[in-house]
Design goal:
9 strands; 7-stranded parallel β-sheet; two-stranded antiparallel ribbon; alpha/beta; single chain; 56% helix; binds zinc ion
C-alpha cells in the first residue's frame, strides 16, 4: 500500500522517474540508473568511505551488470565527515565533467546534497542510493550547501532515480533515524501554517501536495517507541513518508508542503553555522524538531486567542514603514550577510500600511472557523516533545547547547528570515508577537516550565562522539 502511494506520487513528480523502496534492493541501482539516466552512459559512484563500504561494491556491480561504464569512484573520507560545502560540490562537478559521466551517489544528506547541486550545475540527471532515514530531502529539489560561511538552500533538480534499501538504511546509527523523525514532525505545525495562509488568501493549499505529506503522516509518526526499537514496519512507514515529503516539494516546486515556521528555527541556526563545526555536526533534523516544539507552543497559546480584541486602527497606527521594518529585521541579526538575506525575505511579505487594516479584519474573520482544524492538525508542544523523546530525538534546546535566551530570539528571527507566511506573521500583524513569545518564557509558560531533561547535557556530548559506522550527518 505504501509503495502504491509512492508510485502515485511519482506520476506528478517533475524530476524523479523511479523510486525503489524495499529490503535488499541495492541490486536495483543498475536498472534504475539505466532506465532513468541511460544505460549506454558512464557513471561515477560518489560516496564516503563508510557508505562506499556499505553499498559501493554492490551498487557498482549492479551498474556494470546493466551495461553502465564505471569511471573511478569519488570516495570522500569519513573522518572527519564530509562537509556540505561548495568546495566539495566543485569536486563532484569536476569529476563528472572530466569523465562525461552521470553520478550515482550513495549516502545521506551531505552526499545527496553535494551530488544534487553538482549534477544540477551540469544539467545531468543522477541516481541516489539512500543510506539513512535522517532527513526528507532525498526526493526534494534543492540542496543545502555552505558557501562563504553561509548555509543556504540552492535550487537544483531532484534525482532521476532513488534506491532506498531498508536493510542498509537500518544500519545507520539510531540518532540519524531520530533526526529524520524530527524533520518530519514539523509537518504538523508546518501544515497548520499552510492552513492559516490558505484561509487568509495568501497561499492556497495544493490538495495533491498536501495529501502526499499529510495523508500518511500519522502512520509514520505514531509509533516512535517502535521506531527507536527497530520495528521494520514503523521504519518502512517513516522511509515512505520521507520520500513522499520530498516528492510533494518537487511537485509543488516549493518547500511549502514540508516546511513551516518550525523549519525557520533550523534555517536561522544553519545560516549562523551553529554546530556545523562540531566533530559530528549538529543535524538538520535535531534543529527542526526543536523548531517544531517551539511553534507547537505558539499554537497552544493562540488557537483560542481572541483576535477580536485587537483594534485594527491601533495596529495601522503603529505599523512600521518599510524602512522601520528593515531596521527591525537587521537588529535581529549579528551577521550582516544574514541580515541582508533576511531583509530581502521580509520585504517579500511586507504588508503596506494601506492593506494592514483589511489583513487584521481577515484574521479576525477567519480565526474562529480555523480553531477546530488547527487543534486537530498540531499536537501540543508537550506531546511533540514526548514524541521526539520517545524516538530518541533531541527534545530540549539545552541538549544541543541552545540557551532559552537564544531560543527566544530565534522566534523573532524565524518571523523574518523567510517570505513564507506563518503563524508568526499572524501574531506580528496583530501586534501580539512579543506578548505571545514573552508568555512562553514567563512563569507558567511552556519554556519556563520545561525542565532540562535528565542527562540533557550528556545528549549534547552524544552529538559529538567519535564517528560511528554509516555516519554522515549534516542534514
Ligand atoms: Zn527539513
Amino acid at each position: 500500500m505504501s509503495s502504491q502511494r509512492v508510485l502515485r506520487a511519482l506520476a506528478s513528480a517533475t524530476d524523479t522517474k523511479r523510486i525503489v523502496i524495499g529490503r535488499d534492493v541495492l541490486q536495483a541501482a543498475g536498472e534504475v540508473f539505466a532506465e532513468t539516466v541511460g544505460g549506454a552512459g558512464t557513471a561515477v559512484v560518489v560516496a564516503d568511505e563508510t557508505t562506499w563500504r556499505l553499498a559501493g561494491p554492490a551498487v557498482a556491480a549492479s551498474l556494470r551488470a546493466h551495461g553502465v561504464d564505471l569511471a573511478d569512484p569519488l570516495v570522500f573520507p569519513s573522518r572527519p565527515p564530509v562537509y556540505a560545502g561548495y568546495e566539495n560540490v566543485s569536486r563532484v562537478r569536476e569529476r563528472l565533467r572530466s569523465t562525461g559521466a552521470a553520478a550515482c551517489s550513495i549516502g545521506s544528506g551531505t552526499i545527496s546534497d553535494l551530488t544534487k547541486l553538482a549534477s544540477g550545475e551540469l544539467a545531468r540527471p543522477y541516481v541516489h542510493v539512500c543510506t539513512a532515514a535522517s532527513m526528507d530531502g532525498y526526493a526534494a529539489f534543492g540542496a543545502a550547501i555552505t558557501k562563504d560561511g553561509f548555509k543556504i538552500t540552492r535550487t537544483c533538480p531532484a534525482p532521476a532515480g532513488i534506491v532506498a534499501d531498508l536493510d542498509v538504511m537500518a544500519t545507520a546509527p539510531g540518532r540519524m533515524l531520530a533526526n529524520g523523525y524530527a524533520d518530519l514532525i514539523e509537518k504538523y505545525p508546518g501544515g497548520a501554517d499552510w492552513i492559516v495562509a490558505d484561509a487568509l488568501g495568501i497561499e492556497a493549499i495544493d490538495p495533491e501536495a498536501w495529501n502526499l505529506v499529510q495523508g500518511p503522516l500519522d502512520e509514520a509518526m505514531s509509533r516512535p517507541q517502535a521506531l527507536a526499537a527497530g520495528d521494520p514496519d514503523a521504519f518502512e512507514a517513516l522511509v515512505v513518508e520521507i520520500m513522499l515529503s520530498g516528492l510533494a516539494i518537487q511537485a509543488h516546486q516549493s518547500s511549502r508542503p514540508g516546511s513551516g515556521a518550525g523549519h525557520n528555527f533550523s534555517h536561522q541556526w544553519e545560516m549562523e553555522g551553529y554546530g556545523l563545526d562540531w566533530p559530528l555536526p549538529l543535524s538538520h533534523g535535531a534543529k527542526v524538531g526543536l523548531g517544531a516544539i517551539a511553534i507547537a507552543a505558539v499554537y497552544d497559546a493562540v488557537i483560542d486567542a481572541d483576535f477580536s480584541a485587537v483594534d485594527p486602527d491601533a495596529v495601522v497606527e503603529g505599523w512600521p514603514t518599510p524602512e522601520q521594518n528593515e531596521a527591525r529585521v537587521r537588529a535581529l541579526q549579528d551577521i550582516p550577510a544574514i541580515a541582508d538575506a533576511a531583509v530581502a525575505q521580509s520585504d517579500g511579505k511586507y504588508i503596506p500600511r494601506g492593506q494592514v487594516r483589511e489583513h487584521v479584519l481577515a484574521i479576525q474573520r477567519v480565526w474562529p472557523g480555523l480553531r477546530a482544524r488547527l487543534r486537530e492538525q498540531v499536537p501540543t508542544a508537550a506531546r511533540t516533545r514526548d514524541m521526539l523523546r520517545a524516538a530518541g530525538a533531541v527534545h530540549h534546546p539545552a541538549q544541543v547547547g541552545i540557551s532559552l535566551d537564544k531560543l527566544r530570539r530565534t522566534y523573532y528571527q524565524a518571523q523574518t528570515i523567510r517570505s513564507r507566511y506563518t503563524v508568526l506573521d499572524v501574531l506580528f500583524a496583530t501586534g501580539l508577537l512579543h506578548s505571545v513569545v514573552d508568555s512562553l518564557f514567563e512563569p507558567g509558560g511552556f519554556w519556563a516550565e520545561e525542565a532540562v531533561p535528565d542527562g540533557g547535557h550528556r545528549t549534547l556530548s552524544a552529538h559529538r562522539p567519535t564517528i560511528e559506522r554509516n555516519e554522515e550527518v549534516t542534514r
